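Entry for iron/sulfur cluster complex. Fields follow.
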Amino acid sequence: MVVSAPTITATQTSDHSSYWITTFGCQMNKADSERMAGILEAMGYQQASAELDADLVLYNTCTIRDNAEQKVYSYLGRQAQRKRSNPNLTLVVAGCVAQQEGEALLRRVPELDLVMGPQHANRLETLLLQVQSGQQVVATEDHHILEDITTARRDSSICGWVNVIYGCNERCTYCVVPSVRGKEQSRWPEAIRLEMEGLAAQGFKEITLLGQNIDAYGRDLPGITPEGRRQHTLTDLLHHVHNVEGIERIRFATSHPRYFTERLIDACADLPKLCEHFHIPFQSGDNDVLRAMARGYTVERYQRIIDRIRQRMPDASLSADVIVAFPGETDAQFRRTLQLVESIGFDQVNTAAYSPRPNTPAASWDDQLPEGVKVARLQELNALVEASARQRNARYAGRVVEALAEGLNPKDPTQLMGRTRTNRLTFFNARGSDGSSHRPGDLVKVRIDAVRSFSLTGTPLPAAGEH
Ligand code: SAH
Ligand code: SF4
Ligand code: F3S
């Protein structure tokens, strides 16, 4: 077992040490998990075949809402019990609950070996070496995120995440992210491009650039252009990386309406690899609620962004996040959210009932809404969202789309599973009617035969066919 071996070095562990990572939460956590898995494999760990067999179990946690946080404690309870009969087990809690709770987690679950915040993900090896010397370790202090020196162990070999900015400097009154992810730290464009070139060389075809508030990219980097603009913006970054050879598609998330510029929309329309899918959370359809959330934009501004996107890219797909039952939200204000969802016609909307979070202003306001109101509003909104998704999906019937094959359909291995540029999940036969066969990584023209709320099924067109 790695932690009890006194002679362990960076590249040596006992032959059979195995790890298991369970990831909760957003894409940022998924990307961090892939990097931590890369570090563990460089240390000699192998992926365990089951959680209960692993010598090291790492939970990369999320605390965006209370139910996300509670889930972690039930998982931890099981592992803590296992550790009591197997003291060689190494138990790690990483991510946002780790950052939020810090040492309190050790008091709650004394079996833990390591509690590490998201800014420490790239330091996993150093921290494990401290654990190995017999300490319980808590790493939650502010930390300058080190450039990656480890190769991430990525779940996909076709689509990869690339972090461009860590942290968030906004202060949305409901949100725990700034306190758990720390201040914004942008990576240099050269480092981002280099990582993308490396991925292209390994055969990756699609890159999603990641940041909690990706439109803030570059505002912490120095440099002003002769025209007096910031030198490093997301738009400039897209221009800088879009011609990496071998990468066919580029996406980015998550966008903030306050910073979403016309220049950015124009770049997405003009740069061919930029996909026509925009995830722009609006949170509420009422201006007073938006002000109470400290979001820094109005419904009118949001609508202008959408209009501009549709003017430049009429077929673009749009998704968003919404919170219902924010403290003090009246029924009339909630109806404005419904109206906005209805009038825009989203392809997908992630919905949530407001959940009070530690160290956030809105949690201490006295106009919290009862559970019953939360549930009722969420149900009403979800019904509308599903109808909207179904209606938007219907436009694909009979169309020819370009799907990037990402892997086999787990339910039918004769089919490939991929996504359209607009991020629709699409299933199609691996073998075309002309006998041609397609593999993961191929861009395939597919005629859509069947449309469901959340996926499409189609037939690949003959390779040289005129559509
Ligand atoms: N950075 C992104 C989203 C971050 S968190 C943005 O600015 O929009 C992902 C989503 O979780 C948010 O968009 C929001 O809809 C939801 N969320 C965040 N805090 C929440 C809370 N306290 N209660 C309910 N939902 C919340
Ligand atoms: Fe949270 Fe607001 Fe930052 Fe998004 S922009 S992560 S909602 S504080
Ligand atoms: Fe959750 Fe942390 Fe992401 S709280 S949503 S995992 S930034």
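NOTE: The chain is about 30% helix and 20% strand.
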